[in-house]
Amino acid sequence: MKGKLLSIFFICFAAALMQAQAPASPKPLSPLEQTLIANEKNLIEAKKKDDDEYFKRVLSDGFALVAVDGKLHEKQEAVDELGDSDLVELTPYNLKALFMADDAAIVTYDAIFREAPKEDEGPQPRYQHFSSLWVKQGDQWKLKFHQATAAHWGDW
């Protein structure tokens, strides 16, 4: 009898411990978070398609980009950098929206990134972290700043 009670106790304890350690289900995204993450996904698709018209429409005046190599690019040079026909893969995950104010938010995410090898350069880091600053101008969200950061230095 004592052994059965002890067994039942340990089974209940283990079940309670597993339930306590189970990851909490993510909270649903607000409509604004959904809009910003959709904007970022549209940016990613435009990058995959080398869609200059999209960039001209969405980038704000004074837009700047910091590339994975740390170089700062101003608007037109940034458009050229964002539109990349050598892109083989850009798969985002862990997208999050962080609000700075009613009219400003940062969208961050990690991504698997691959592009066709260039003759005079080594490959870009495969895992990168991206951050985008979106600002609301009138009734539209515009991209003000974008940065790519190598997530694993060993990938160079």
Could you walk me through the main structural features you see in this protein, from its secondary elements to its overall organization?
- The chain is an alpha+beta fold.
- The protein has one domain (29-155): Nuclear Transport Factor 2, Chain: A (Roll), CATH 3.10.450.50.
- 35% of the residues lie in helices and 38% in strands.
- It has a six-stranded mixed β-sheet with strand order 2-1-6-5-4-3.
Task: Describe the structure using short key phrases.
156 residues, alpha+beta, Nuclear Transport Factor 2, Chain: A, six-stranded mixed sheet, 4 helices, 35% helix
Uncertain stretches of 5 or more adjacent residues:
5-18
Radius of gyration: 22 Å
User: What is the CATH C level class, in words?
Assistant: Alpha Beta
Q: What number of domains?
A: 1
Distance between the termini: 63 Å
Can you give the helix content as a percent range?
25-40%
User: What's the mean pLDDT score?
Assistant: 80
Q: Strands of the largest sheet, in order across it?
A: 2-1-6-5-4-3
Strand content: 35-45%
Proper CATH architecture? Roll
Number of alpha- plus pi-helical segments: 4
Biggest sheet: strands, sense, closure? 6 strands, mixed
Tell me the overall shape. globular
Q: Tell me the total number of β-strands.
A: 6
Q: Pairing-aware structural class of the strands and helices?
A: alpha+beta
- Order of helical and strand elements: HHHEEHEEEE
- Reported by name, the CATH topology is Nuclear Transport Factor 2, Chain: A
